Amino acid sequence: MRDVLFLTNFSDACFRATRAVAQMVDEVNGRLTILHARDAERESKSLALEKLNSFFPEADHFRGTRRIVADGDLLAAVANESSRGIDYVIAPVPIRFGLPRVAHQSTRANVLLAHRTQVWTTGKNTAPVKLGAPARNVACLLDAPSGSNHHIRRAADYAAEIGARLHLLHVIPNMHEGTITESPMPLNETEVANLVPYIARRPHTEIHIAPGDERQTLVNMLRTCDADILFLNERQSVQRRLFGIAMSGIVQLAPCPTISVAPHQRS
Amino acid sequence: MIVRDRLSLLRVWPAASRRLAALLAFDIAISVAYSVYGFNFVSVPSLPLPMVGGALSIFLAFRNNSAYDRWWEARTLWGALVNRSRSFARQTLTLIDSEGDPGDDPTCRELVQLQAIYVHALRCHLRRQNPFPELQSTLPADTVAWLRTQRNVPIAILLRIGQLLRGLYNAKRLDSFRLLAFDDSLSDLCNIQGGCERIKNTPLPRQYEIFPRVLVSIYCILLPIGLVSGMGLVTPAASTLISFIFISLEFIGRDLEDPFEVTVHDTPLSSLSRMIDNNLRQSVGKTELAPEVRPIDGFVY
Hints:
The complex is a heterodimer.
Chain A: E1 2-7, H1 12-27, E2 30-38, H2 45-54, E3 66-71, H3 74-82, E4 88-90, H4 107-115, E5 118-121, E6 137-141, H5 150-162, E7 165-172, H6 189-195, H7 197-200, E8 205-211, H8 214-224, E9 229-233, H9 234-237, E10 238-240, E11 245-247, H10 249-253, E12 258-261
Parallel strand pairs in A: 1-2, 1-4, 2-3, 4-5, 6-7, 6-9, 7-8, 9-12
Antiparallel strand pairs in A: 5-12, 10-11
Helix pairs in contact in A: 3-4
Chain B: H1 9-35, H2 49-95, H3 106-127, H4 132-135, H5 141-148, H6 153-170, H7 176-201, H8 206-231, H9 235-256, H10 269-283
Helix pairs in contact in B: 1-8, 1-9, 2-3, 2-7, 2-8, 2-9, 2-10, 3-6, 3-10, 6-7, 8-9
């Protein structure tokens, strides 16, 4: 049984994500914990409990569901739950005011970096139809040439667990005139397969390669293979800025939910 | 469903922010170009803005009325589901011959439980949500395995209920008149489900979606061009305010037309499902009830 931790602040995005949570719980035979970190100055404990009990009420019928109201820091509460072992953290995209956020510290990014777990999230372009739909196509973005590809194994295991096709995606950056050294970047299916041989030769696995701008090309490839979920590693998921940290543009623009995998978490 | 009078700006702003911000920037550019730099060509005071605005308002009102009709029909159907579920439970506990208290009879309890499960399954069906995490904890494994093979899980549950009633008829615990009464109940439930599916699967004609958005955008772009000669540097304030009114009217229609989309504008399916579940539990004498679903920040889901 997998442990799924659903972080909620009762926003619209959290309500929309309940469909995806139900689907994931069924697919991975999950045990759900719904966590809300309350601001003690603005919200009494009884009010927070009342809200939490009214949020996603059908989860009470799931096996082993727990509801937790944590006081204060959300990351500390996640750390406490992580110590018991968490397989997935569900953290939907927060409401955006539409204005630039300077020195923003993304909760999702911090959870991923601090707790070495898998973080499921959505972006502003995530198609609503993908939330809650059975995952038939699991995509995974290769980090080449020498990046960490631990997330590919997780994607392969996830695809095998739920009976989905695995799509390995590789974007070749635009080559400019003047590139004089031989690039270590894999440029064809054979080279990609050699990079991850233990995965590429599994049944129901496809390799997609395309040149171009990483974000836009990736979005096109995701639409082509009709991906229902995209696996990324830490480097692809997190964008470090001068005064803050945020989820990367890939997470924001992907038309499907993403699962960011940090290394050294329990399988 | 929104149940409070004042809405947080955080809930309203994001949906309209980018369009309004772009329009405000455009309005400012027009008013500065005319008033400060004297570019008279950006002003066309003879534009028929009042007439176009009036026609657009009528169009938006008609569209919003249609969207509201769908929203209200969805609520009416679920109100009928509440009534029919209670009636079914009453029929089960009063029309079926049983030794002793019908609330203790296993078949009667199973029928009432299946009715509650049907409501939850219908809620998941309309929201396109996986029902099996809920069903696994309340139904036997073989029943869940059978339901997984069914495309329409609520209808399959109704079929199971009908099969149980047929078994009671064969066991002479129901006569044909009472079986007919039960069949009418099941038919009503089927009709309610059909009505909900009709709303879910048949959106408003796309012309009602596309044309209002295009026409409102064109009108909001023409607004500062028609107003700037009379209002000068105050044009952005007036133009943005009028644009906000039309954009809001457009959003109201868009938000209401799909009442089963897991948004704050939906029919409160979770709350109604919980209420039906608790009513049916009490009817068979159970005392452990799930807590009532209360509004969260003024929204009921």
